[in-house]
Amino acid sequence: MIGRLKGILVSKQPPWLMVDVNGVGYELEAPMSTFYDLPEAGREVVLCTHYAVKEDSVALYGFLREAERSLFRSVQKVSGIGAKIALAILSGASVEEFSRLVQAGDIAALTRIPGIGKKTAERIIVELRDRVDGLGGGVAGIVPGGAVPHDPVAEAGIALQQLGYKPAEVTRLVKDAAAPGDTAEAIIRKALRAALR
């Protein structure tokens, strides 16, 4: 199993990133919570990873914080939730925010995350309420920094669509969130926060 990667960040195009570890390029899928804090390409990064093997595929997921990886693994134990919804949860809310929503039994806020309907939200609350306490943790290891993409609005729109939002919804969210000079990560963060309200 691959539990941790330390190397040079080669590229980041939400939800994908590539890390070069001694000449081997590892392609990982990551939630937006990780993308917000990634350094610029060419800098060193340390990621906690989750290696998933299925009958027809192999996938590697990357997280800057152990708490994110723990939540990613925990939510997939809930019936009906797979990796795609687990990534959407981490992209739509921080570990602390998600824990608070589950503890408060806030079904309405949980259903605003793509892929989560009322019944799934209810299952999440019932099955995770006792397990979300104590999910915390620091950053696995990054060198601070952030690159400004060529077209942050377009990049944010693509990332939101890949997270499961419909094109009309993406257009509205990006339009409301984008401000002059914003990076794609900043636009996505504001859009996701607005979607949870």
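Next protein, fold it too.
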Amino acid sequence: MKHFTLGELTRSATARRLGIDNTPPPRAVKALHALVDHVLDPLREAWGGPIRVNSGYRCPELNRAVGGTPGSQHQHGEAADITVGSPSRNRRLLALIKRLDLPVDQCIDEKGCRWIHVSHRTGRNRRMYMKF
């Protein structure tokens, strides 16, 4: 983990506000390291500037509180929602993810590229690209 910290991958204003302990279990920590090592750090190196994590690991209680899907990969430490500040810049970041052919399981353009959801799992990644 060169450009990202466990703190930024687990930080949540909602968890703080609601008093939810969002400490990831060891298995999720391992998955977060894999996400960073295989997707986020290589992407940051290629982008050449900061990438902000809006949401990383979410314990089940936090995932429910923010309206996440019940099977969300965030709950396993396999996903992060990221941004570089604007939809137009996020579109360029999305194009870079595709061009680099990073081992993503899912890469989702969320709400007109307001942010990008990226996930990675140990084993076979589906390299699914979607829009929501």
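About the second fold: The radius of gyration is 14 Å.
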